[in-house]
Amino acid sequence: MKRRDVLAGAGIGALGVMSGQAPAFATDGFFVPAEEDPHEATFMQWPVSRAVYDDRRFLDDMQETIAEVANTISAFEPVIMLASREDHALARAKLTGDVTLWDIPTEDLWCRDAGPIFVVN
Hints:
With 121 residues, this protein is of the alpha/beta class. 42% of the residues lie in helices and 12% in strands. It folds into two domains: 35 residues, no CATH class; 73 residues, no CATH class.
């Protein structure tokens, strides 16, 4: 099952029922695109949580890996990395100038689960 199916079937649909209104995409043409649909940019999150990554070496390795993924993607499309301003210097040292940093605090790398959801009309 795809994320949009869950949102459409359970989450957004339930909100519409609870509020007494039909879901916006059903009547107004708004929808959450599929993950594999064409897009303008990739959003990623900078992992920093010591609760999740209590081993400092493992956290360093994870940040190196996320930077490598972001740097690779940025050769093909814009990448926006979400990270707290206090983490920008460390992230910038590992990221190319092609990756844009936004001052949005994060803890873990799961942007799909904790990052923004985009709706299209």
